[in-house]
Write a structure and sequence with these properties.
The chain has 676 residues and is of the alpha/beta class. The protein is built from 29 helices and 18 strands. The chain starts with a helix and ends with a helix.
Length: 676
């Protein structure tokens, strides 16, 4: 097999063997573990005789036997079973038992990886369906040794297989895998200002991905540093919640190095609820968290952590339960080094974290925290149709707590949405890619920070605003017309007059009858006021009090309020309703909000933008921001499209008319052909 596609198609063809015995959603239970197992078997095959010879000579009860066998295998794992793929297939009747023996022969760490696939159950199902031999025989015919299939290509194969699994099962719509060119762009952006430091002799670098998937981001970041400084010590750390992708990542990292340290640093479990690297900080942190995925399974732990405030990982607040992207972002910030070395973060997210949530919401407060702490360095808008499982717009956020002096208090936005070339063949929803030359151009824009149609630099405060409540006075007229009196029947307080809470049916009937009589009496009293139209509420209340006194009719506060509601209508020519202090009452239906830029005076904005159009309006100063006691609630959003919008004037009418006439002539010509 010459290329990546042929290898993927060959492995995927296993589905044809098992489709009658396994549901489409279960294809990965067979294909993924056998792919991993075949690669491991290929890696260990050259040194397997040395491992077995050592065991035959000294036995397996010797102290430090693991270290000795690691040295013989050349990796941080070994297999002491007598079997390999060839020998297993040579004894078909005992294949299931021998395969279990083979798996039991792995060193502890690698056996744990294989068991994450629930492989014993898969062996049982394949054996019962008489498919085990055929599946293993098919896998024997593909060479997955790293000398033939590099780790980078193997990562692509794994991710393409997982994409096909998700596509086949129509599950996990929020999961997606990061295209290699996006990872390379993220890595280049992370290290754009650190070349000199990374090439320093004896340099040690720690890289972390909190949702590492199959490990692609970690390995590409490591490879890039190795290219810059082969003598640097690079350590990888990660965590993954999906057992299959966790097993893929860990097994591949075991094959990348002889000491296996990086593989041991990949933890299993939910990062949000169970941080397995709690005490660690890292130099570079990068991730592609799931988009629009609920975090309700982690809710209790996340909210408990949020209650710890700055001592926890989520002190800035929690986003809506339907999307956990900003929780991952906060978690990553908690992993930044707090010494003078500092850290950099690259995270790719969809558009939601840019603007979702009004002032005071969890999302807005998280953005506020990040921007006011001056951690956000840049955001890069990527092309659409770039990812395998989604065609939506995505953005790379670059954060740092070691900004240089020229970057402090500033944020760069780069519009790279038009930087793409079409794929020759679509891969799921992925129809575009970013060529290497364009990656260099984007990184250059980030490094040089020019002002252009594609790059703009803003003060962090430019993204802030105050949501100010604008009130207008309540103006009502009142009339005791039959139509308005009839509206009393819709008022709850008036309805309650004829309701009883007594359980005794007789007493209940008596109270309800009395209530209906009271309702009728109130309507009679109101009708006695004739149909005069009152343009002032105080005048109406005086007349209402007078007629009630004349009829010895006492009204409760709730019923009085119901009468005012039923008999009133909004009227711009009526007098303003005022409270006991003589202040205008606000009309909730006319209430509006203004979003005042944070770096502008609220009073000045009101005088310029509101007062000339609504001279009777005023600012509701009761609604203020708790953090700075200013007017209105403070919010932050990054409306990317607003900053890069370019006005496109409409076509001239003459051109449009000419096109219409041309279309009409074409239609007439076609009709003539039909008639003839």
């Amino acid at each position: 097999m010459r290329n990546f596609s042929e290898k993927v198609n060959f492995i995927w063809s296993i589905a044809d063997l098992i489709r009658d015995s396994f549901k489409r959603a279960k294809y990965q239970d067979v294909i993924l573990p056998f792919t991993v197992l075949r690669r491991i078997d290929s890696v260990l095959k050259p040194t397997k005789p040395d491992v077995l010879a050592t065991l035959a000579e000294i036995g397996d009860q010797v102290e430090d036997i693991d270290d000795l066998l690691f040295s013989k295998s050349g990796f941080a794992f070994y297999n002491k079973s007598l079997y390999d793929f060839d020998l297993l297939l040579g004894d078909a009747p005992q294949l299931a038992d021998n395969l279990r023996n083979y798996i039991a022969g792995f060193s502890d760490d690698m056996r744990e990886v294989i068991e994450r696939f629930d492989f014993d159950n898969t062996i049982k199902k394949l054996d019962e369906a008489n498919l085990l031999f055929m599946v293993m025989e098919r896998f024997k015919n593909i060479d997955l040794h790293p000398n033939t299939v590099s780790n980078a290509e193997m990562g692509l194969i794994f991710e393409e297989l997982i994409r096909k699994f998700n596509e086949a099962s129509n599950e996990n719509p929020g999961e997606h895998f990061t295209p290699r060119e996006v990872i390379r762009l993220m890595v280049e952006l992370l290290m754009a200002h650190d070349a000199a430091e990374l090439m320093r002799p004896g340099k040690a670098v720690h890289i972390y991905d909190p949702c590492c998937g199959t490990g692609g981001m970690l390995t590409i970041a490591k490879n890039r540093i190795d290219e810059m400084n082969s003598a640097a010590t690079v350590r990888l750390y990660g965590q993954e919640v999906n057992p299959e992708t966790f097993a893929v990542a860990k097994s591949d990292l075991y094959m990348l190095s002889s000491d296996g340290k990086d593989a041991e640093n990949i933890a299993f479990g939910s990062t949000l609820s169970d941080d397995r690297h709690r005490s660690r900080q890292f130099d570079y942190i990068l991730a592609n968290p799931p988009y629009g995925k609920e975090w309700k399974n982690d809710r209790a732990a996340v909210e408990a952590e949020a209650e710890r405030g700055d001592a926890g990982r989520f002190g800035a607040g929690t986003p809506r339960i339907s999307d956990g992207q900003m929780l991952f972002l906060q978690h990553m910030i908690s992993k930044m080094r707090t010494d003078e070395e500092g850290s950099r973060i690259a995270i790719v997210m969809n558009g939601s974290p840019l603007f979702t949530g009004d002032a005071g919401s969890g999302e807005s407060e998280i953005r506020r925290w990040i921007l006011e702490k001056d951690w956000l360095d840049a955001i890069i808008a990527l092309p659409e149709q770039l990812f395998y499982n989604t065609g939506i717009s995505t953005y790379i956020w670059i954060l740092s707590n070691k900004k240089t002096a020229d970057k402090r208090g500033r944020v760069q936005l780069i519009d790279a949405s038009s930087v793409w070339t079409p794929l020759r063949k679509n891969l799921g929803d992925k129809r575009r890619e970013i060529p290497a030359a364009q990656i260099t151009e984007i990184v250059q824009l980030y490094r040089d920070r020019p002002e252009s149609d594609f790059s703009k630099v803003f003060a962090a405060s430019d993204f802030g605003y105050r949501k100010v409540t604008i009130e207008r006075p309540l103006q009502l007229n009142f009339q005791t017309s039959p139509e308005r009196i009839a509206r009393l029947d819709d008022e709850r307080a008036f309805q309650n007059l004829a309701k009883s809470k007594k359980r005794d049916p007789q007493i209940q009937a008596q109270e309800e009858a009395a209530g209906r009589g009271e309702q009728a009496r109130i309507k009679t009293v109101l009708a006695d006021m004739q149909e005069k139209l009152f343009n002032d509420r105080d005048d109406f209340l005086q007349s209402l009090n007078a007629v009630c006194k004349a009829h010895s009719c006492k009204l409760s506060a709730a019923v009085r309020k119901a009468i005012l509601s039923a008999l009133s209508e909004r009227d711009e020519s009526a007098g303003v309703c005022r409270d006991r202090k003589g202040q205008p009452e606000a009309d909730s239906q006319l209430r509006d909000f203004e979003y005042v830029p944070l770096n502008e005076s609220v009073e000045g904005y009101f005088a310029r933008e509101v007062a000339p159009h609504l001279p009777d309006a005023w600012i509701n100063e009761k609604v203020s921001d708790e953090k700075d006691e200013g007017i209105g609630k403070v919010g932050y959003e990054i409306n990317f499209n607003r900053y890069f919008y370019q006005y496109q004037p409409p076509r001239p009418l003459d051109e449009i008319n000419a096109d219409i006439r041309q279309a009409e002539q074409a239609i007439i010509a076609m009709l003539k052909e039909v008639i003839q």
